[in-house]
């Protein structure tokens, strides 16, 4: 059995094809980038429209399959940017109608978690999902992926990229700031804002931007990253303590950060927990995770009427019933 999944929540238009064991036969993508700004939703959607066909052809060629071999089609129904989501949804509906496949809209964040659990030894982790747009601390409790804490304003990846843009580091700036983290010598005090179990990054970013030109640039990168990740670690540690889980799983685009890994390693060592990091190709937005989510929901018997395949920009992680366990 083969599942084809379409990801188009933000920058990336991706198509993945997986089999029943989550062997990834194809994981093709095209990513929108803008030299000045993070993302312009309509321009990103135009990009996805222009590249969609090519990405589909690449995915089928990679998998050595044709559309007639596909058994189920899934797409990221949300959360994400409306114009971008719609390109994926329309593509999926068209393919489903033409080739008579079942169609399933799946939750993008839940797909990140499930591919992470499949591609690492983690079984019941607290998930640290950090990307440009999202920052959530998630854990499975009573049949749903509960969001124990999350950003109330911007994703931590966006904080790093916005700061990097002010420094002229280009996009994405996160990897450069990550290198600088290990070169920094002095921690500059910056606003640290954990509200209950939630995170607020705007004050931290504003204050760091104000210090550009007045403080050492390397120390400033180190301090911004250290403060932002310390906030994430505090909430993750409290979620671990509350749930008594023994694993942390890191996913999303920021999972590639060595600084975040080093901070979470210390946290896990102190709490007797294990740290797992999703391989980069499956941690970034990608079609394979959407295909895998479609596969497990289809196998568990979910059917979605065509009329309910509208996109949902605010589709929350904790709305989804985890019925496939
Ligand atoms: Fe994502």
UniProtKB/TrEMBL annotation:
An annotated Gene Ontology molecular function: tRNA N(6)-L-threonylcarbamoyladenine synthase activity
UniProt binding sites for Fe cation: 108, 112, 129, 285
Domain of life of the native organism: Archaea
Alphabetized NCBIfam families for the sequence: arch_KAE1, gcp_kae1, PRK09605.1
Function text: Required for the formation of a threonylcarbamoyl group on adenosine at position 37 (t(6)A37) in tRNAs that read codons beginning with adenine. Is probably involved in the transfer of the threonylcarbamoyl moiety of threonylcarbamoyl-AMP (TC-AMP) to the N6 group of A37.
Family assignment from sequence similarity: Belongs to the KAE1 / TsaD family.
Name this protein carries in UniProt: tRNA N6-adenosine threonylcarbamoyltransferase
Annotated organism of origin: Candidatus Iainarchaeum sp
Primary gene name: kae1
